[in-house]
């Protein structure tokens, strides 16, 4: 009897040791692994079958949870559970989730802050701000196209206008005016130079 008692005690001790090892090895698992097993609280007392959560304030309707319709489309759930739905798209948008933009006038249809106007179901027109032209107002108007600056002047196209850059002896809208003060000054310099040359020549003689 004494021998049997000692055998039973030894078996119990071995069981306790193995249990302690298993518990110790589990407690040393990485924290990230243990965090992958969160507790989820789901109330089974919600009277509304479309609500879930501990306070029955979360919708389990697919349209509310996923919000699949884009571009301000309206989602309609086809059943109280599951993910069957359809989208009512605003004018100009199509597709299962209203993601296709079929509008004639998009934000970038008319460039340079110009105004897009739908004229028919298939056509549009861009009202360009001054200084721009083209179907999408993409071309800057060249105001030098039919302008010819005189006396080797160079035309520069500016905003809503042009400017002729003239040589220093000319001025005017088209560089057509010869600067008289410069001409008089040049004539005076030439005549003075000739006079000095003649005087020097006379003295040397």
The CATH topology of the domain at 41-100 comes to Laminin
Number of helices: 4
**Element-by-element helix/strand order:** HHEEHEEEEEEEEEEEEH
Q: CATH homologous superfamily of the domain at 41-100, by name?
A: Laminin
The proportion of residues in beta strands is 15-25%
Task: Spell out the blueprint of helices and strands.
Elements: H1 2-27, H2 31-35, E1 51-52, E2 58-59, H3 62-66, E3 74-77, E4 85-88, E5 93-94, E6 100-101, E7 115-118, E8 124-127, E9 132-133, E10 139-140, E11 154-158, E12 161-165, E13 170-171, E14 177-178, H4 180-204
Antiparallel strand pairs: 1-2, 3-4, 5-6, 7-8, 9-10, 11-12, 13-14
Structural account:
- The structure is a single chain.
- With 205 residues, the protein is an alpha+beta fold.
- Among the domains are: 41-100, Laminin (Ribbon), CATH 2.10.25; 104-141, Laminin (Ribbon), CATH 2.10.25.10; 142-179, Laminin, CATH 2.10.25.10.
- The protein has helices at residues 2-27, 31-35, 62-66, 180-204; strands at residues 51-52, 58-59, 74-77, 85-88, 93-94, 100-101, 115-118, 124-127, 132-133, 139-140, 154-158, 161-165, 170-171, 177-178.
- Strands 1-2 form a two-stranded antiparallel sheet. A two-stranded antiparallel sheet has the order 3-4.
- Keywords: Disulfide bond, EGF-like domain, Membrane, Repeat, Signal, Transmembrane, Transmembrane helix.
- This is EGF-like domain-containing protein.
- Disulfide bonds join 89-98, 128-137, 166-175.
- Residues 1-25 form the signal peptide.
């Amino acid at each position: 009897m004494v021998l049997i008692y000692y055998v039973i005690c030894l078996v119990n001790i071995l069981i306790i040791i193995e249990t302690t090892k298993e518990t110790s090895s589990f407690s040393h698992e990485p924290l990230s692994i243990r965090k992958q097993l969160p507790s989820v609280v789901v109330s089974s007392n919600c009277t509304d079958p479309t609500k879930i959560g501990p306070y029955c304030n979360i919708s389990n309707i697919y349209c509310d949870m996923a919000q699949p319709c884009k571009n301000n489309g309206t989602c309609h759930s086809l059943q109280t559970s599951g993910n069957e739905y359809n989208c009512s798209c605003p004018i100009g948008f199509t597709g299962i989730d209203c993601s296709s933009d079929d509008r004639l006038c998009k934000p970038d249809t008319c460039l340079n802050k110009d105004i897009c106007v739908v004229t028919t179901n298939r056509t549009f027109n861009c009202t360009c701000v001054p200084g721009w032209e083209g179907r999408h107002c993409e071309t800057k108007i060249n105001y030098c196209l039919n302008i010819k600056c005189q006396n080797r002047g160079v035309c520069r196209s500016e905003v809503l206008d042009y400017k002729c850059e003239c040589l220093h002896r000319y001025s005017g809208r088209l560089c057509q005016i010869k600067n008289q003060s410069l001409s008089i000054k040049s004539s005076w310099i030439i005549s003075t130079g000739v006079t000095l040359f003649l005087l020097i020549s006379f003295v040397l003689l």
